[in-house]
Design brief:
Elements (H helix, E strand, L loop, with lengths): L2 E11 L3 E2 L3 E2 L7 E11 L3 E10 L11 E2 L7 E8 L8 E10 L9 E9 L2 H14 L1
Length: about 140
C-alpha cells in the first residue's frame, strides 16, 4: 500500500516548482487520497498545487490530472486522485505555482506538504456497495 509524500513535510518554497516523481504502478488500487497541508504562509499570497502523470517518470503530460483549489490560508485540504481513467500513468508528481501581491516583500513564502495515500480496494468496494444501496 502506497503512503508517501509528493511534497515532503516542511517544504518551504518561494517560486514555482515540481516534486519528485512517485511510482504508483505497484498500487493495488488506482484511487488515492491527496492531502495538501499548508503550515506557514505570509499575507497576500496564493498557492496553486496540481498533480501530473507520466508513463516513464521523465515525460510529463501537458495538463494536470487533478488540481487543488487555489489556497490563501493555512490548513488541510483533501482531494481524491482517481487514476482509473488514466491507466497509462505509472508515475505522479506535484507541481506548484506561487504568487504574492500587495505591500511589503514581493517574494512569496509557503511551508507545505502533499501526502499521497492509496485507498485500499476493499474500502472502495464497500463504499461503492453502500452508495448503490442508497441510490
Amino acid at each position: 500500500m502506497i503512503d508517501t509524500f509528493l511534497v515532503a513535510e516542511n517544504t518551504v518554497v518561494s517560486a514555482k516548482g515540481d516534486g519528485a516523481a512517485v511510482d504508483v504502478s505497484a498500487a493495488g488500487s488506482r484511487v488515492f487520497l491527496l492531502t495538501l497541508e499548508i503550515a506557514k504562509i505570509i499575507e497576500q499570497e496564493s498557492l496553486d498545487v496540481s498533480v501530473y502523470g507520466s508513463t516513464d517518470g521523465a515525460t510529463w503530460g501537458t495538463k494536470p490530472i487533478v488540481a487543488f483549489p487555489q489556497k490563501f490560508y493555512r490548513g488541510q485540504t483533501p482531494l481524491l486522485l482517481d487514476l482509473t481513467q488514466n491507466p497509462e500513468a505509472k508515475f505522479v508528481r506535484a507541481h506548484w505555482e506561487v504568487a504574492r501581491w500587495g505591500r511589503g516583500v514581493e517574494t512569496p513564502m509557503f511551508e507545505f506538504a502533499v501526502r499521497l495515500k492509496e485507498i485500499p480496494a476493499d474500502v472502495l468496494r464497500e463504499v461503492a456497495a453502500e452508495a448503490k444501496s442508497l441510490a
